[in-house]
Amino acid sequence: MEALFQRRVPRSMVPASRAGAWLLRLGLGALLLALALGPARSQSLIRDAEIEHALRELTRPIANAAGINTDTLDILVINDSSMNAFVVDAQTVMIHSGLILRLDRAEELQGVIAHELAHITGGHLTRRMANLRGARGAAAMGLLMSMAMVAGGNAEAGAGLAMGTASSAQRVFFGHTRAEESSADQAGVRFMAHADVDPQGMVDVLDRFRGQEALNVARQDPYLRTHPLSAERMRALKGYAAAYGGRAAQDPHAAEWFARAKGKLGAFLQNPRHTLRQVDKGDGSDIALMRRAVAYHRMPDTGRALAEMNRLETRRPNDPYVQELKGQILLESRQFAPAAQAYGRAVGLAPKEPLILAGQGRALLALDTPAANRQALDVLKRARVRDPYDPRMLRDLALAYARAGDNGMASVATAERYALMGRLDTASVHANRALGLVPRGAPGWLRAQDILAAAEQARKR
């Protein structure tokens, strides 16, 4: 797991060279995140190449059945122990880590994804934003003001303002979703059936929440509040599943990727001793080896972690995610040269994975030799082309540019990193600095101009 870092808006929010669209996505993402997560919580995204690949593998058949291009779709994980999932925009679905860890089968997670994709195909997000814009009064105004504070990086102030206003605004917003939820149930089950995925998975997920309806709202998982249930809805969903089900067999490919995502997520987020208790010492499966390696690494016990990784590498010599994890363990254990070698092998096996490229660049920067720094700059530039919305990669890219003596592009990368973090005032300082160092009209100069334009629009709002 490459990093856990604070990000209050989704990574899909910034189209290249479109400052107005950037600002729109920034505001939309912050607003919807706050509505779904609650006013007093600032969440972090979990970025990991293997977990994101696993989610893409689980999503692909569902998205194909829904007519959605998976190349433009992001399924991202929020570091939150509660159970929730929601759509941010037409390209981004957020899933809480707690939901993944409490599911038992790939089909259940695919049921969650199918339901959320149905919201996208049904155009529900557009209507919800129209409903929200139609809300009047102090409650809606207070919520919007608090979201602006959150987007600007002042989460505590935003939370304080939102505490008194979010409840009524949520009632306005979520009061329009009950019919949409039933529609998404039916469409989602249809997508699953067409993809030969057992629709019972969606029923089983929602059935977990039935006992919560009698609980105080503060004790309910967010999924229940954002996806309101009813006896009629459950009966209808079971009818849909029965009508479409009975033809799908368990998919070993989906089961494996679900187990890898859940196993890795749990190994990094849960107490390492808990992980070691969960994994039997005699379990020699690939996932058990991976989980023990992560647990030992976090204790830390680097020797035992690498012993498990070496066993796993022998089993899966051509698996890029095994090499990436080995590289991470070595890098975080300050064994920089072998870390760079492991990341290099991972990149050779998966040359288009931006998070793996970013990891290789980080390991090369840790070596801090002229040759390694030059290679790091090349690798990190390739990572940025494929995923320009990773603040940690942008921090490393700025360092690589600075070591190469290109202070102008270092300022551009730094400005982009602060902009992605919602700190547009700080981003403007670095963007202005970049304009004086980068040739006028060059790509970096245009990117700096975009940041300044977005910051200006934010101030006018």
TrEMBL record:
Which terms does the UniProt entry file under GO BP?
A: proteolysis involved in protein catabolic process
Q: Provide the cofactor list for this protein.
A: Zn(2+)
Q: Name one Pfam family in it.
A: Peptidase_M48
CDD domains, alphabetized:
M48C_Oma1-like
Q: Name one GO cellular component term.
A: membrane
Listed GO MF terms: metal ion binding; metalloendopeptidase activity
Q: Which residues form the Peptidase M48 domain?
A: 54-240
Query: What keywords tag this UniProt record?
Result: Hydrolase, Metal-binding, Metalloprotease, Protease, Zinc
What is the top-level taxon of the source organism? Bacteria
Concerning Gene3D superfamilies, the annotation shows: Metalloproteases ('zincins'), catalytic domain, Tetratricopeptide repeat domain
Known PANTHER family for this protein? Answer: METALLOENDOPEPTIDASE OMA1, METALLOENDOPEPTIDASE OMA1, MITOCHONDRIAL
Supply the name of the protein: Putative Zn-dependent protease
Origin species: Rhodovulum bhavnagarense
Lineage of this protein's species?
Answer: Bacteria, Pseudomonadati, Pseudomonadota, Alphaproteobacteria, Rhodobacterales
